[in-house]
Amino acid sequence: MKILSADQTRAADQATIKAEGIRSDELMERAASAFSDWLMDRLSLLTPHEVHIFCGPGNNGGDGLAVARHLHLAGYAVQVWLLPADKYSPDFTVNRQRLPTEVLCTHLKPKKLPSVSPKATVVDALFGTGLSRPLAGLAAEVVEHLNDSKATIYAIDLPSGLFTDAPQPSESAVVQAQYTVGFELPKLAYLLPQNARFVGEWEVLPIGLNTEFIHNTDVDNHFVNTAFLTGRYPKRPKFAHKGTFGHALLLAGSYGKVGAAVLAARACLHGGVGLLTVRTPAVGYTILQTAVPEAMALTDPATDFVTELPDLKPYAAAGIGPGLGQEESTANVLCQLLRKAAEASLALVIDADALNILGTHRELLDDLPPNALLTPHPKEFERLTEPAHDDYHRLELLRDFCARHRCYCVLKGAYTALGTPEGPLYFNSTGNPGMGTGGSGDVLTGLLLALRADQRLSPLDAALLGIFAHGRAGDLAAQQTGEAGLIAGDIVRFIGPALAELVS
């Protein structure tokens, strides 16, 4: 699913109007009808609702007026508040004329804003994606008033004051909506942590924007859902065998951290790898042989941490990092692996302590083989690059990092972002807060290692399938455990069912 910029969204609207031979107010009516139906599904006529709709002078205000008409005709008591302006958009004017006279419509005045009960339903239709500067004057006063009201706020398309594609000044007024409802495609602003208190929960409703225009439009960002992954995960051949799905090498574990190696190994096996060998210090041998009997344990000469790199010839992919430690001899193993991987045509997955070693020795980044896959959380990514000014800046750092080092980088978190060597970013749609628990990242590493070992998959498809299935497994697990009770081992148990949903 593509993520369009504000300019591209407006172009998509115009392409739809032209292709279908309709008026702009007719397309607006689609959006208003979709939003109204969505909202009425959440409200009940059996319970009295105080519904306030705040409308700006542009097309977002036109949406609000059309929604007011729909709610009124459905039997809801609606009060419309208009932001005064010297000029109103044509579609605003059309919908103002269509509004039944029974609907009370009042212009807002400075210092005399309406009382809004905390139990009220508020529809924010002040400003949408066309906003290019921070709100000021009466508009900012209205926004702050709504935020102070503690009413439940539903934003149409975008909370007023929030920019679509860029950060707004930290002190600017922005509506703090509990729900944001967009149309056809998600917006980048929905996906970033710094906007969470404004966007709240969000949903996108279809309104029939021109599919040909969307298909032919190049974008920098994509939203990964089940439909986006259709056809990327092939069904297993009838005569497949363990050699078909690759032999993976996992370098993981150290004294006190062998559990990370166990979690990663289990995830790799549940991710469908043909064969798995775990390189671990001698202290991990009995643990691995007992906890993960399906994997082969290749012990290091050292007792407590990994000090030597084994022969790489048998392997299609190698993963390094979970519970590894950062001893100097372990750092040397990573250094050797980076330099030999390209020669051995070895796909790499790099996580956890291996990332911390790279952060300490940034010169090693120049040795990353093409298409290496790194899986940092934001703090680990900062050690590889620099502190980000905001979430938008972090995405630019991600884009630049992947292009410079010809690698893939999974920036973990809600809506995990995958950076690519070619430039586009991919935001994941699965996962839940319960996955913010120790070991969840180790599970992701093991799953990605299995998929990178599968030679049927491109590096991009392996990464996309891995982050999606990891989140989906967490969602399936949370249905049984609840988010608070979710542990990393629960995610492992649901990797198989999550991948099964993606088989084409």
From TrEMBL:
InterPro entries: Carbohydrate_kinase_pred_CS, CARKD, Nnr, Ribokinase-like, YjeF_N_dom, YjeF_N_dom_sf. Keywords: ATP-binding, Isomerase, Lyase, Metal-binding, Multifunctional enzyme, NAD, NADP, Nucleotide-binding, Potassium. SUPFAM superfamilies: Ribokinase-like, YjeF N-terminal domain-like. One of its GO terms (molecular function) is ATP binding. Residues 225-502 form the YjeF C-terminal domain. It comes from the Bacteria. Residues 9-215 form the YjeF N-terminal domain. It holds the Pfam family YjeF_N. Binds 1 potassium ion per subunit. GO terms for biological process: metabolite repair; nicotinamide nucleotide metabolic process. AMP binds at residues 412-416, 441. K(+) binds at residues 60, 124, 160. It catalyses: (6S)-NADHX + ADP = AMP + phosphate + NADH + H(+); (6S)-NADPHX + ADP = AMP + phosphate + NADPH + H(+); (6R)-NADHX = (6S)-NADHX; (6R)-NADPHX = (6S)-NADPHX. Its EC number is 4.2.1.136, 5.1.99.6. Its cofactor is Mg(2+); K(+). (6S)-NADPHX binds at residues 59-63, 128-134, 157, 260, 323, 377, 442. Homotetramer. Catalyzes the epimerization of the S- and R-forms of NAD(P)HX, a damaged form of NAD(P)H that is a result of enzymatic or heat-dependent hydration. This is a prerequisite for the S-specific NAD(P)H-hydrate dehydratase to allow the repair of both epimers of NAD(P)HX. NCBIfam families: yjeF_cterm, yjeF_nterm. In the C-terminal section; belongs to the NnrD/CARKD family. Belongs to the NnrE/AIBP family. This is Bifunctional NAD(P)H-hydrate repair enzyme. The gene is nnrD.
